[in-house]
Specification:
Chain A is mainly alpha-helical. Chain A has helices at residues 2-38, 43-50, 55-66, 76-110, 115-118, 120-140. Chain B is mainly alpha-helical. In chain B, α8 (141-149) runs antiparallel to α9 (153-174). Chain B is globular. Classes of the chains: A mainly alpha, B mainly alpha. The interface between A and B is medium-sized, with 17 and 13 residues.
Chain lengths: 145, 220
């Protein structure tokens, strides 16, 4: 049982981060497609903004790789806790970032001059995801091999 | 969730600052095809009732109008849409009551029986009070009564559009990409179109033409 938990924890950051990225990119992508119907140019930047939540998957991959590859009864509870919690943080940050990106696309479609500032909420959310990612790496180094 | 639909709609300017519609009726209808069948049906049911220029109930008696409204109360609606319908019907109900009082008549039985979201008995009990004693529930009531008393119908319409505009904007802000944002946009667009149709020069010319027809000024 403990070993199973360890394996769940090992894969959780990647799986949860990827699911969050999918949902976030879906929201941003839908907003980008809608905005493309309304504007005559600048499609590329909408797609770029819609892709912002994909970074959580990369963080998830790195955290998974940083966790101990050898799962034992000693380290599996720690791997489970670290993996699931960091995965949840990445999942929700990607989801929320998708909504923030959709809002930014919607706002900058009508007022292109607010494009930069409208991305501030999405950037803040990215910051929180980075916190979760960095501290997951730090704590992963303290887990027993 | 309607991320694509909301993002495909242009920004609606505030009705008093707008000089044209930002999207044509045809284009708006095209965009609204993304709506789910349930939401599309709800929108098509409620749209004629809440519009400032009612078309569905044109040339019908009060009784038929009330019957129509009561029928749509039975239709399952999105919570926010139902709240807005209640808000809008309350306004219509109050205007009808204020007009009846102003003309010296009593509340028509159709309206008494309708009970559209408020107590008609309470209004009847306080028929002579300026705002039927409901000023604290509906803060817009004294202003509405003031415009009606002055026969300032344009002022009354401006107040109505403003009240509904604010309500719908607040509703859309709560769920930016949900159905509530969609119907808020559509209803605001309807109000904007109705508002932009006001043309004082055309109205004056039409009024003069009608007066001339009645008084036979042209023929004499």
């Amino acid at each position: 049982m403990e070993i199973t938990l360890g394996w769940i924890g090992l894969y959780a950051p990647l799986a949860l981060g990827a699911i969050g990225s999918m949902l976030g990119c879906l929201r941003g992508g839908m907003a980008a497609c809608g905005a493309m119907l309304e504007v005559e140019s600048g499609y590329g930047r909408f797609v770029g903004v819609a892709a912002m939540p994909s970074s959580q998957t990369i963080y998830g991959i790195v955290v998974t790789m940083a966790l101990p590859a050898t799962i034992t009864a000693d380290n599996s509870p720690g791997i489970f806790a670290l993996g699931v919690l960091s995965g949840l943080a990445l999942f929700f940050s990607a989801f929320a970032q998708g909504v923030a990106c959709a809002s930014a696309i919607n706002a900058s479609k009508s007022k292109p001059e607010v494009f930069g500032i409208s991305l501030a909420p999405a950037a803040l959310i990215e910051g929180f995801a980075v916190f979760a990612f960095v501290f997951a790496l730090v704590l992963a180094g303290r887990l027993p091999e | 969730m309607y991320y694509d639909l909301i993002s495909s709609l242009p920004l609606l300017p505030y009705f008093q600052r707008a000089d044209r519609l930002p999207i044509t009726p045809l284009r708006l209808d095209q965009r609204l095809r993304i709506l789910s069948p349930t939401h599309a049906q709800q929108l098509s049911h409620v749209r004629p009732i809440v519009s400032l220029r009612s078309q569905r109930f044109e040339r019908r008696s009060d009784e038929e109008l009330v019957k129509g409204l009561l029928k749509y109360r039975q239709v399952p609606l999105d919570k926010c849409l139902r709240e807005y319908l209640k808000f809008r019907l309350t306004q219509r109900w109050m205007i009808a009551a204020l007009r009846c009082r102003q003309s010296g008549s009593s509340l028509p039985s159709e309206l008494v029986n309708a009970e559209v979201g408020l107590s008609s008995r309470r209004i009847q009990q306080r028929w002579e009070a300026p705002g039927f004693g409901l000023e604290y529930v509906h803060r817009w009531l004294p202003e509405m009564a003031h415009f009606l008393a002055k026969d300032d119908l344009l002022g009354l319409e401006r107040l109505l559009v403003k009240l509904n505009w604010v309500w719908l904007t607040r509703c859309a802000d709560q769920d930016m990409f949900q159905f509530s944002a969609v119907f808020a946009y559509v209803f605001k667009w309807d109000m904007l179109r109705a508002w932009l149709q006001h043309d004082p020069i055309k109205a004056k010319a039409k009024f003069t033409q009608l007066v001339n027809e009645i008084t036979n000024v042209e023929s004499s």
